[in-house]
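Predicting holo structure, adenosine-2'-5'-diphosphate bound.
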Amino acid sequence: MSMNSHGLFAERVTDVQHYTDRLFRFRITRPQSLRFRSGEFVMLGLPSDGKPLMRAYSIASPSWDESLEFFSIKVPGGPLTEKLQNIKPGDEILLRPKTTGTLVHDALLPGKRLYMISTGTGVAPFISIMRDPESYDKFEQLILTHTCRTADELLYGYDSVEATKQDPLVRELAQNRLSHFASTTREESHYRGRITALVRDKILFDALNLQFFNPEEDRIMLCGSMAMIKDMKNLIEPVGFSEGSHQSPGTFVVERAFVG
Ligand code: A2P
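Done. Tokens:
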């Protein structure tokens, strides 16, 4: 579609799936000229009479995909998500033409394993990364962790890992090299607890038959609530991990999950 008068792409919703009363996923058409790196985010919004209200959304589809997928929370009273949660196929979505973000391979030094640690909708950029063949060129092993309050909130992550393992482009790479570890904090499931506790108590590593984080070999991406990121930093910085950026790659990178 074309650009509107605000310099935004006007795209169309193609598909919406509500996972819980707090979470939904949607797909939109992709502007042909939009280029992005797997793991980046874009500013997205709905048309309005005045200036459109835009929020940052991680792109959950990989950079080669023909459409764009997003995973959103529904914030009660949230200026954008109150309306966005009602979108239907055919509705218009606005996108800013520029994408950005730190959850990209260039911000990390080379390593053996990539840990992608997420809470809630913070899983979205990692869905993009695990579906990109480049990720398997860079790392021997990819580990996605996803922690939510309840088991039904984990379903999008499960569906996406399954889709990755079926995807002809990456299924052979992902089959034995992509691991998924999911936990819940407010009800029982296979693993119960915050990811910080499951790391500290080595439950994550025992489950995957791996050793504790090692800055010589492991690289970590964090995406989720500010509190989780802060607490994870307090676990990994003392054992020698240092935060990377585009200018200066490091052994971990961080992005908060966006709300509003
Ligand atoms: P909890 O249920 O104990 O708050 P939310 O849905 O609020 O964004 O939270 C997503 C997940 O992040 C929840 O499982 C929540 O656990 C967890 N979480 C919240 N704060 C922290 C923290 N400081 N460290 C680790 N996990 C956290």
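The helical segments are 81-84, 124-130, 133-138, 155-166, 171-177, 195-200, 203-208, 226-236.
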